[in-house]
Amino acid sequence: MPLESAPIGIALSQGGRYLQVNAAYVRLFGADSPEDLLGHSLMENIAESQRDLVRARNREREQGGQGLLEYETLGRRLDGSTFPMKVHPTTVPLEGGLGTLAFITDLTEQRHIQEQLLGSEATFQSYVEQSIDVIFVLAANGTFVFASPAWERHFGYPVSAILGQPFAPFVHPEDVAPCAAYLGRILSRGQAETSPPYRVRHADGSWRWFLANGTRVCAPDGSPQFMGVAHDITETRRAEEAFRENEEKLRVIFEASKAGIILVSEQGVITFANQCMADLFGLPLEAVIGTTYPDHLDPSEKVTGDQRMRMIITGEISFVSVERRFLRGDGTTFWGHLSGRRMENPDGSLRALVGIITDVTKRREAEEQQRILEAQLHQAQKMESLGSLAGGLAHDMNNVLGAILGLASAHQEDLPLESPARGAFGTIIQAAERGGNLLKSLLSFARQNVAEERALDLNILLQEEVLLLEHTTLAQVRLILDFSPDLRGVLGDAGALTHAFMNLCVNAVDAMPEGGTLTLRTRNLNPDWVEVQVQDTGMGMATDILDKALDPFFTTKEVGKGTGLGLSIVYRTVKNHQGEMQLHSEPGLGTCVTLRFPAQDLPAGTRESSGAQAAAASRGRLQVLLVDDDDLIQSSINSMLGFLGHQTTSALCGEEALAAIRAGARPDLVILDMNMPGLGGAGTLPILRQLLPTVPVLLATGRADQTAQDLVRAHPFVHLLPKPFGMKELRANLEPFLGD
Question: Which of 316, 312, 314, 336 is nearest to 325 (CA)?
Fold first, then answer.
């Protein structure tokens, strides 16, 4: 309590029970400590004979709306003894309703003095001189007739200075009229009455607050006079003012707070809210007061929120710090961080719940965006790791399949048409080609950059896919083409993009086993982007499936009907083209895949389709230098070159090949493997080109990455030879260099 050291008793109560008492109050009622009084009824400290009168006085005060109505009664100490006291109550607002702040003065000494006055003039004189309170007499015209020595002790100047003087100059100007009216009532009615609070000037210029108990007496000449006993209530008034100032400071803090603040009763009713809280709820302040706290929670939060509130009310927990979704008045929601705590009375009982709510919606949205970005980064890192693994695996397998394909195709061509072994070799060739196609998928997935970059019209690429699909998988599917006629071009790898579009179309058809609609759509998204959509009306995907759809080797198809690389390859292809990919799917409503690519202005005549042009065949004989570190590849390519009538010189590494050239070897053509120990193809090619500036070079690689592309562009007469390859592919790559 702010006035713990005040000399008068001070008590704060609500609902008729003590909330706080000061030390003077404890002494007045014979208690050992405040705990002996807290929680007890105020009436327990009123003499039983006086309780009905006090209750009547309290009702009179409440009904009249008076914040201040002093009265005298008998106090009852804890040991049962009684004493006269003066009660100065005032109504104050508290959390949960109104309370009473009472200031108690022990009148034992005053009453004793009054009794002495009735006994004898000498006793009266003694009382007057010893009284702490100021005893004074005013004539009917308001001039001082008498004042006790306490006057000088209270005001710092002698009694002689006021005798014969009117009271008004000594009273605060604002209090003169109320005091004059009070004096008039006493003199006219003759009934004892307590004055309103008034201020009297001290000799040092300060003002002291007083209350007077006055009555009408007769002067020796029979004229009416006013006699009063004035009690200094300055400390009481300061206590009241301090209480109001503290309350005002708290209110200013509450209203200035950037967080919403509420007080909730034991029944869950909001009894107080600041303006920030009303703004968060999107309601007028008066519409918040009186509502229940759970009413402002999102329905998904109500059960948990109500349980936590009850746990605090019952004392199972003393505070809570959680984030909940709250409702605004317009039906929208926001995320709020709630800090809730119990406010307890001195006896530990619940006074109210305090809740502080801050809007954390933006932080939650930022965290969700961060989670999405982290998931995308994780996906990209996973693709990167698996891509590296796939690239390494494809390189080794290419050599194995290349040897099988090369020898099988060479021996097949060497056999007569009627030979039974020719069919067996055909089966071997088909198996090797199937394995090669799977490796191409792995390499497409592993590729970090486009294999080749040229101007493309996506409308043309998609139209070619449609022509192919119409002859294969579109028998039961309705096709809708929504192509933008002024579609801007893109720079990219026609083969990779064709493969990506084919994967999406095949997946869409597979998702519609009972038929449906496949929509291919293109448009210019804005000046910087071109968009392609592949949309079906098939089965769709649940959220858990959709989250894994881009994972390599994940498939929902039956064993043998899918590798799980389709969407992974599409995703990697789009990323390699600096594009974006989005998947949207719902069970029963189909799937829509949206691809976006950077737009490119294409000069006239630069738009190309994905078709490869066949080279004209011619005949001749070549001296070939084969540079490859794999024995299987050496054996198979040597055999194929021999079947084709060419002569071969072999080298197991770049350094060996360069040594042979420096020693005088002059091949007509070099087949150079890209991935070898030592210099490798990338280190060998520049030196080879210096030694033999015009000799054609076929750069053999199963991974046509950016390094290989850069080598082809940087050196003349260099061409890519994709692995694995058979007799047919080798012949086609050699024919441009054969003489007529």
Answer: 336
Alpha-carbon distances, residue 533 vs 458, 487, 580, 584, 671 (angstroms): 11, 13, 12, 11, 42
d(CA 1, CA 101): 11
Task: Give tens-digit pLDDT for 542-564.
Answer: 876 776 666 654 555 554 444 44
Asked whether 273 and 285 are in contact (CB, 8 A), the reply is: yes
Are the CB atoms for 212 and 229 separated by under 8 Å? yes
Paired residues of 49 in beta bridges: none
Beta bridge partners of 552: none
Radius of gyration of the chain (CA): 51
CA distance 398 to 379: 27
Q: Is 581 helix (H, G, I), strand (E, B) or coil?
A: strand
Is the bond into 724 cis (omega within 30 degrees of 0)? yes
- Pair of tokens at residue 225: 């006079």
Whether residue 689 contacts residue 714, with contact meaning beta carbons closer than 8 Å, is answered with no
* Residue 59, Cβ density class (10 Å: 0-12 exposed, 13-18 middle, ≥19 buried): exposed
Q: In whole angstroms, how far apart are CA 314 and each of 350, 386, 407, 528?
A: 8, 56, 86, 62
The pLDDT value recorded for residue 6 is 76
Q: DSSP of 105-161, one letter per residue?
A: EE-HHHHHHHHHHHH-HHHHHHHHHH-SSEEEEE-TTSBEEEE-THHHHHHSS-GGG
| HSE (side-chain half, CA atoms, 13 Å) at 12 | 18
Q: What percent of the chain has pLDDT over 90?
A: 21
Q: How far is Cα 337 from Cα 259, in angstroms, rounded to an integer?
A: 10
For residue 202, the number of C-alpha atoms closer than 13 Å in the C-beta half-sphere is: 14
Q: Are 10 and 104 in contact (CB under 8 A)?
A: yes
Strands annotated E in 408-543: 454-456, 477-482, 490-492, 516-526, 529-536
Helix residue spans in 48-100 (DSSP H) = 51-64
Label residue 204 exposed, middle or buried (CB < 10 Å: 0-12, 13-18, 19+): exposed
Domains contained in the chain, CATH given: 9-106 (3.30.450.20), 110-239 (3.30.450.20), 257-359 (3.30.450.20), 458-598 (3.30.565.10), 623-737 (3.40.50.2300)
Identify which of 190, 192, 232 has the alpha carbon closest to the alpha carbon of residue 211.
Answer: 232
Determine the pLDDT at residue 442: 57
Closest CA to 438 of 295, 267, 563: 563
Question: What CA–CA distance (Å, rounded) separates 92 from 673?
Answer: 95
Note whether 151 and 162 are within 8 A (CB).
yes
C-alpha 243: how far from chain center:
40
Burial label for 78, CB within 10 Å (0-12, 13-18, 19+), is middle
d(CA 102, CA 110): 19
Q: What's the pTM? A: 0.34
**Model pLDDT for residues 655-698, shown as the tens digit of each residue:** 999 999 999 899 999 999 988 899 999 999 999 999 999 899 99
Please give the torsion angle defined by the CA atoms of residues 162, 166, 172 and 173, in that order, rounded to the nearest 10 degrees: -150
Q: Which two tokens stand for residue 487?
A: 């579609």
